[in-house]
Protein backbone atom coordinates (compact mmCIF):
# COMPACT_ATOMS: atom_id res chain seq x y z
CA UNK A 1 0.00 0.00 0.00
CA UNK A 2 2.86 2.41 0.81
CA UNK A 3 4.31 2.42 -2.69
CA UNK A 4 0.89 2.81 -4.31
CA UNK A 5 -0.05 5.68 -2.02
CA UNK A 6 3.34 7.31 -2.67
CA UNK A 7 2.70 7.13 -6.42
CA UNK A 8 -0.85 8.50 -6.14
CA UNK A 9 0.22 11.39 -3.91
CA UNK A 10 3.14 12.19 -6.23
CA UNK A 11 0.79 12.33 -9.23
CA UNK A 12 -1.83 14.39 -7.40
CA UNK A 13 0.63 16.90 -5.97
CA UNK A 14 3.09 17.41 -8.79
CA UNK A 15 0.63 16.77 -11.61
CA UNK A 16 -1.84 19.03 -9.86
CA UNK A 17 0.71 21.84 -9.65
CA UNK A 18 1.30 21.71 -13.38
CA UNK A 19 -2.35 21.26 -14.40
CA UNK A 20 -3.56 24.04 -12.13
CA UNK A 21 -0.76 26.46 -13.05
CA UNK A 22 -0.62 25.85 -16.78
CA UNK A 23 -4.21 24.91 -17.61
CA UNK A 24 -6.87 25.53 -14.97
CA UNK A 25 -5.99 29.06 -13.85
CA UNK A 26 -5.25 30.48 -17.32
CA UNK A 27 -8.48 28.98 -18.71
CA UNK A 28 -10.39 30.29 -15.71
CA UNK A 29 -9.19 33.86 -16.24
CA UNK A 30 -9.70 33.69 -20.01
CA UNK A 31 -13.20 32.27 -19.63
CA UNK A 32 -14.27 34.74 -16.95
CA UNK A 33 -12.65 37.83 -18.49
CA UNK A 34 -15.81 39.84 -17.78
CA UNK A 35 -15.75 38.75 -14.15
CA UNK A 36 -12.13 39.02 -13.06
CA UNK A 37 -13.18 39.09 -9.40
CA UNK A 38 -14.88 35.69 -9.61
CA UNK A 39 -11.86 34.21 -11.39
CA UNK A 40 -9.59 35.56 -8.63
CA UNK A 41 -11.80 34.14 -5.87
CA UNK A 42 -11.96 30.72 -7.54
CA UNK A 43 -8.20 30.76 -8.18
CA UNK A 44 -7.50 31.51 -4.54
CA UNK A 45 -9.72 28.61 -3.44
CA UNK A 46 -8.05 26.22 -5.90
CA UNK A 47 -4.55 27.27 -4.84
CA UNK A 48 -5.48 27.00 -1.17
CA UNK A 49 -6.76 23.44 -1.73
CA UNK A 50 -3.60 22.58 -3.68
CA UNK A 51 -1.56 23.93 -0.78
CA UNK A 52 -3.21 21.55 1.67
CA UNK A 53 -2.80 18.67 -0.76
CA UNK A 54 0.89 19.60 -1.02
CA UNK A 55 1.34 19.65 2.74
CA UNK A 56 -0.23 16.20 3.17
CA UNK A 57 1.54 14.71 0.14
CA UNK A 58 4.88 16.31 0.98
CA UNK A 59 4.90 15.07 4.54
CA UNK A 60 3.91 11.55 3.47
CA UNK A 61 6.54 11.45 0.73
CA UNK A 62 9.27 12.64 3.10
CA UNK A 63 8.32 10.06 5.73
CA UNK A 64 8.15 7.39 3.01
CA UNK A 65 11.67 8.20 1.80
CA UNK A 66 13.15 8.18 5.30
CA UNK A 67 11.27 4.99 6.18
CA UNK A 68 12.58 3.09 3.17
CA UNK A 69 15.98 4.75 2.68
CA UNK A 70 16.85 5.48 6.29
CA UNK A 71 19.41 8.21 6.86
CA UNK A 72 20.64 7.74 3.27
CA UNK A 73 17.52 9.68 2.22
CA UNK A 74 19.23 12.87 3.42
CA UNK A 75 21.97 12.29 0.85
CA UNK A 76 19.65 12.08 -2.16
CA UNK A 77 18.55 14.81 -4.52
CA UNK A 78 14.88 13.70 -4.59
CA UNK A 79 14.65 14.07 -0.81
CA UNK A 80 15.88 17.67 -1.00
CA UNK A 81 13.59 18.42 -3.93
CA UNK A 82 10.68 17.31 -1.75
CA UNK A 83 11.95 19.52 1.07
CA UNK A 84 12.14 22.44 -1.37
CA UNK A 85 8.63 21.79 -2.63
CA UNK A 86 7.24 21.53 0.87
CA UNK A 87 8.97 24.76 1.94
CA UNK A 88 7.51 26.54 -1.11
CA UNK A 89 4.07 25.20 -0.23
CA UNK A 90 4.34 26.29 3.41
CA UNK A 91 5.62 29.77 2.54
CA UNK A 92 2.82 30.39 0.05
CA UNK A 93 0.12 28.81 2.21
CA UNK A 94 0.94 30.43 5.54
CA UNK A 95 2.90 33.59 4.67
CA UNK A 96 2.10 34.90 1.20
CA UNK A 97 -1.58 33.89 0.81
CA UNK A 98 -2.63 35.62 4.06
CA UNK A 99 -0.74 38.75 2.99
CA UNK A 100 -2.46 38.65 -0.41
CA UNK A 101 -5.85 38.31 1.26
CA UNK A 102 -5.09 41.25 3.56
CA UNK A 103 -3.72 43.44 0.80
CA UNK A 104 -6.65 42.63 -1.47
CA UNK A 105 -9.16 43.63 1.20
CA UNK A 106 -7.42 47.02 1.59
CA UNK A 107 -6.37 47.39 -2.03
CA UNK A 108 -6.73 51.17 -2.08
CA UNK A 109 -4.39 51.52 0.92
CA UNK A 110 -1.71 49.10 -0.30
CA UNK A 111 0.66 51.48 -2.00
CA UNK A 112 3.44 51.20 0.58
CA UNK A 113 5.12 48.50 2.60
CA UNK A 114 7.59 45.68 2.13
CA UNK A 115 8.40 45.26 -1.59
CA UNK A 116 6.02 48.17 -2.23
CA UNK A 117 3.24 46.34 -0.43
CA UNK A 118 0.89 46.19 -3.38
CA UNK A 119 -1.15 43.21 -4.45
CA UNK A 120 0.75 42.90 -7.75
CA UNK A 121 4.10 42.66 -5.94
CA UNK A 122 2.93 39.95 -3.54
CA UNK A 123 1.19 38.13 -6.38
CA UNK A 124 4.47 38.13 -8.33
CA UNK A 125 6.35 36.73 -5.32
CA UNK A 126 3.72 34.02 -4.86
CA UNK A 127 3.82 33.15 -8.56
CA UNK A 128 7.62 32.87 -8.48
CA UNK A 129 7.44 30.55 -5.47
CA UNK A 130 4.78 28.44 -7.21
CA UNK A 131 6.91 28.25 -10.39
CA UNK A 132 9.96 27.20 -8.36
CA UNK A 133 7.87 24.54 -6.63
CA UNK A 134 6.61 23.24 -9.99
CA UNK A 135 10.19 23.14 -11.30
CA UNK A 136 11.30 21.16 -8.23
CA UNK A 137 8.39 18.80 -8.88
CA UNK A 138 9.41 18.34 -12.51
CA UNK A 139 12.97 17.55 -11.45
CA UNK A 140 11.69 15.14 -8.80
CA UNK A 141 9.60 13.22 -11.33
CA UNK A 142 12.38 13.33 -13.92
CA UNK A 143 14.87 11.77 -11.51
CA UNK A 144 12.43 9.57 -9.64
CA UNK A 145 13.69 6.15 -8.82
CA UNK A 146 11.59 3.00 -8.64
CA UNK A 147 10.88 3.43 -4.92
Automatic annotation (TrEMBL):
Q: Which Pfam families match?
A: DUF4149
Transmembrane regions listed in the UniProt entry: 7-29, 49-67, 79-100, 120-142
UniProt-listed InterPro entries: TMEM205-like
The keyword Transmembrane helix is assigned to this record: yes
* Transmembrane helix is among the record's keywords: yes
Q: Where is the TMEM205-like domain?
A: 9-104
Which UniProt key words apply to this protein? Answer: Membrane, Transmembrane, Transmembrane helix
Superkingdom of this protein's organism: Bacteria
What does the UniProt entry say about where the protein is found? Membrane
Q: Which residues form a coiled coil?
A: none
Q: What is this protein's name?
A: TMEM205-like domain-containing protein
Q: Which organism is it from?
A: Silvimonas iriomotensis
What phylogenetic lineage does the species belong to? Answer: Bacteria, Pseudomonadati, Pseudomonadota, Betaproteobacteria, Neisseriales
Amino acid sequence: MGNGLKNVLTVLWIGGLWIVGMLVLPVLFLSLDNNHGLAAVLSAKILHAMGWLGIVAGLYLLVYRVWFDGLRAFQTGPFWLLIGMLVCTLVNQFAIFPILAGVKSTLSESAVGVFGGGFANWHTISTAIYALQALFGLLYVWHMDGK
